[in-house]
UniProtKB/TrEMBL annotation:
UniProt entry tagged with the keyword Iron: no
A single BP term in Gene Ontology: fatty acid beta-oxidation
EC number: 4.2.1.17
One example GO MF annotation: enoyl-CoA hydratase activity
A Pfam family hit: ECH_1
Protein name listed in UniProt: Probable enoyl-CoA hydratase, mitochondrial
Organism: Cloeon dipterum
Top-tier EC class: lyase
Keywords assigned by UniProt, alphabetized: Fatty acid metabolism, Lipid metabolism, Lyase
Amino acid sequence: GKYEHILVEKKGEKQNVGVITLNRPKSLNALCNALMLDVNAALAAFDADASVGAIVLTGSEKAFAAGADIKEMQNNDFSSNVRNNFLCHWSNMTNIRKPIIAAVNGYALGGGCEVAMMCDIIYAGDKAKFGQPEIAIGTIPGAGGTQRLTRVVGKSKAMEICLTGNMISAQEALQLGLVSKVVPADKLVEEAVKLGEKISSHSPLIVTLCKESVNAAYETTLEQGLRQEKRLFHATFATDDRKEGMTAFVEKRPPKFTNN
Ligand code: HXC
């Protein structure tokens, strides 16, 4: 196929949920450079596909991803990292405008946890394990592990996770708000696809604005975020889908969104 390290398909009754499955089983989906290029290419393709309303990113039952590929980076040095902007392209996935749901079974460690946190929503299987074990191999998280995690779980927990390298369970991740739902491992992808279908039932245009607005809370000050939210809210009134949504409510019928 087109990709070496991932599988790509569309799921859901209306085939409107893109599913990307990390598929490098021999190394527990270690995120080598080629794999991340595959992931970002597949995400961009789904983002551009008008039939897709949401994207699910998942791994295997044993591992979502056990981190950046340690074997690939073990002989790197500082100057080549700077020259090549090592791993910088990972965060391209944060420019995807459709919602991305991480469906995490098994290990989400190091870069695996960081990639999950770059997604918009995380669902976990009941045996999932999250952690930032970089400290144990003489480095630190490099793709948001000290930043996104701290914003989500607060300083004390993030410090504990990053400084010990200890893993946390799916249940603890739920308690901390790192994941929004824990489901039996064998139902995980199904549940994530259902979530994707629900999101896809809304106006894609408005979903894009809504994702952008929630992200403002994450990336800006409260004042800036509130101002941006208000503008985006105002802007929805320039769309056909806003008109249709409210008209359909008043007429007691389901809306027919046109993405306009
Ligand atoms: C390369 C990896 C790997 C990784 C596992 N493997 N994780 N290869 N990079 N991150 C390989 C192993 O070498 C082994 O290959 C095979 O996958 C199976 O792994 P085992 O260790 O034998 O499995 P198990 O005993 O079940 O232990 C599972 C595990 C352990 C607890 C997840 O594999 C582990 O600790 N992995 C490393 C976790 C880690 O430190 N991640 C952070 C990486 S640093 P062989 O060939 O021996 O069979 C990072 C930086 C992010 O992510 C920065 C981003 C910018």
